[in-house]
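This section describes the prediction task in plain terms. A model, or a person checking by hand, is given the sequence of a single protein chain and must write out its three-dimensional structure as a string of tokens. No templates, partner chains or ligands are provided. The sample shown here is typical of the held-out split.
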Amino acid sequence: MKEKYIEDLKEIKDIMNRSSRFISLSGLSGIMAGITALIGAFMAYKFVFVRGDYLIFESVILSSEQFSILLLTACGTIVLCIGLVIYLTTQETKKRKQKIWDQQTMRILLNLSIPLVTGGIISLTFLVKGYVGIVLPMTLIFYGMALVNVSKYTLNEIRSLGLIEILLGLVAMQLVGYGLIIWSIGFGVLHIVYGFIIKMKYKL
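The expected answer:
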């Protein structure tokens, strides 16, 4: 009798957990976002970073062409990643016959956007001033903070991913010359690994 009671409690807890957390994040969206980030990093290296030693703690001079390429590459990567995540997660949500836009979704967007927008504005300010080497680790740190902030509303793995992103950002601050490589690991490789884990574990 006692065992059945405990089992019933576990089932109730699981139902409540599913209802209070957004669990339709697509594993494929993580994989695609990671691949997109790696392509963006390669383009940044090929058209900007290969031309000079810009990954330092000092302000550097970027030509207007280099600045435009770097900014467009960053914005293009972000927009494409967000677009893929929204589209693939929406498809997964429809498949599970869950609501796409509800109060829970709004909570996620609000808690995600505050650190991301703040970090984006600060990073852009440093980029305009020429502190390119600081921008890469800073984006990792703020992105990690955003994931940790939103993790209470979604999968537990999001928190782990966020903490690793923050750690990588702090490492990149110490090894600023390897900033692009560490950024590629954080936004590229880690997202691909995360995507495969979610796909295998939750069949998403």
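For orientation: The two ends are 35 Å apart (CA to CA).
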